Amino acid sequence: MKNICFYFEIHRPVRLKRYRFFDIGNDHYYYDDFQNEDHIRFLAEQSYLPANKAIYEMIRNSNGKFRCAYSFSGIALEQLEQYAPEVIDSFIELAKTDCVEFLAETYAHSLASIYDYNEFEQEVKMQVDKIESLFGKKPTAFRNSELIYSDEIGEKIYQLGFKTILIDEVSHVLGWKSPNFIYSHPSIQRLKLLVRNFGLSDDIAFRFSNPSWQGYPLTADKFIGWINNFPENEKIINIWMGYEAFGVFQPNHTGIFDFLKALPYYALLNNIGFILPSEAAKKMDAVNILSSPEPISWSGLEKDISVWNGNDLQQEALNKLYAVEERVRLCDDRTLRHDWLRLQSTDHFRYMSHKDSFGTYYESPYDAFINYMNILADFLDRVDQQYPTTIENEELNALLKTIANLEKEVEKLQAELKRLRARKKIIE
C-alpha cells in the first residue's frame, strides 16, 4: 500500500525596521512591529486558519485516516501567540485529533547547524520544549531549517536523540534512486532519511494555478492518479511545502482549498493511505544509504547553502554574528538573548543574496546588508558591554564549562523529579 506523507512548514522571520548608522548606540529596538503584526494577521486570515479548518474537516470526514505533520520555528510561534492566538488554538484542536505530528527544528530557523553546534543543540531543545508546552506533543522526528542536511549534520541530529530526518530530493545525492523510499545515513544505519518528492510538492505549492503549466488544471483525482502510477514498490510519497501555499501562494479563488479537501477521498478510493514521518520510519525499512558529504537544502537551483552564505556580504554578516555566540550564552540579559535568536533567522541572509532574495522587502542585497550590519553593530556593542572582547579565551572557556556542568546537574535533578512524580501517581 502506498502512503502519502504530508508535512507543512510554518516560519516567519521578525521583520527588521529601517535602522540607520546614527541609530547605533542610541536605539536598541530593531523590529518593525506594525509590519510584523500586519503580515501575521494576513497569513492567519488568508492561510493558516482556513487551512487548519480544511485539515480538521479532512481528518473528521476520513475517520482519522488523513494525517499530516507540521514544523514550526519558535520565532513563528512567538509571533502567532502575540498577534494571532486563535491560530495557536486551532493547532491545539488539531493536536487533540492525534492525527498530526509536530516536528523538531531550530528555534530561530537558523544556520546554527552549519556555524555552531552548541547553539544548534540549545535551539533544538528550546523548540522541542516550546512545542511540548503548547501542544502536549514531544517531537521525535527532525527537519532542519531550509531542509539543510549533510552526513555530519545527520550525526549531530542523531546525537540529540532523533532517528528520523527529513531531507530534500537532490539529484547529485540521489543519483538514480527514487525519493519514494526510505534511506539511511551511511554510517548510522538506525538513522532514517525521508526524502521530499520536490516535483509533486512544487506542483501544489507553486504551479497549481499556472495556466501555462502542462499539468493545469490540477485536480485531486489527477494528482492521486500520478501517485497511483508510481511503481508498486515505491511505498512513500513525501509531499512537503510551506503552509502559505494554501491561501497565499495559491489564493482561495484558485480552488486550492477544494483541491486539498478532495485529496483524502480520491486517495482512499485508490487504496492510498496517509502516514506521519515518525510512523513511516518505524514501519518501513531503509532500502539503501544516502550520503551527502556537503550540505544540501531545498532552496535555489543548486540546492546547496549558497543562497545564505554564497557571497561576501553574507559571509561577513554570518561570521560577525556567530563570533560572539559564546559571549551571548554567558549573558543573563533576556532581551539580548532574544535579539540573538531573532537575528539568526535564515531569511535575513537570503535577502542579501544576489541570486535568490525571495521574500525580500529591501531595494537590493546591499540595502539588506547595510541595514542588518547597522543593527548587528549595535547588538555587538551590547554584547561587549556584558562580556568585553578583552576577556581572555581561557577565562571565557572556564565560565562556559561551569555553566555546562550546572546545566547537566539541572537536567539530572529534573529527570529525578519527573521519576518521583510518576512514582507518586502510581502509589496514589
Question: Can you walk me through this structure?
Answer:
The structure is a single chain. The chain has 428 residues and is an alpha/beta fold. The protein folds into three domains: 3-289, 7-stranded beta/alpha barrel (Alpha-Beta Barrel), CATH 3.20.110; 306-386; 398-428. The chain has 18 helices and ten strands. It has helices at 33-61, 74-83, 85-96, 112-115, 117-135, 151-159, 171-174, 198-205, 220-228, 256-269, 277-283, 306-309, 312-322, 325-330, 334-342, 346-350, 365-386, 393-427, and strands at residues 3-10, 68-72, 100-102, 142-143, 164-167, 182-184, 192-195, 236-242, 273-274, 288-289. The strands form two sheets. Strands 1, 2, 3, 8 and 9 form a five-stranded parallel β-sheet that branches. A five-stranded mixed β-sheet has the order 4-5-7-6-10, sandwiched between helices. It starts with a strand and ends with a helix. The relative contact order is 0.14. The model has no long low-confidence stretch (mean pLDDT 94).
Q: What topology does this entry show?
A:
Layout: E1 3-10, H1 33-61, E2 68-72, H2 74-83, H3 85-96, E3 100-102, H4 112-115, H5 117-135, E4 142-143, H6 151-159, E5 164-167, H7 171-174, E6 182-184, E7 192-195, H8 198-205, H9 220-228, E8 236-242, H10 256-269, E9 273-274, H11 277-283, E10 288-289, H12 306-309, H13 312-322, H14 325-330, H15 334-342, H16 346-350, H17 365-386, H18 393-427
Helix pairs in contact: 1-2, 1-3, 1-10, 2-3, 9-10, 13-17
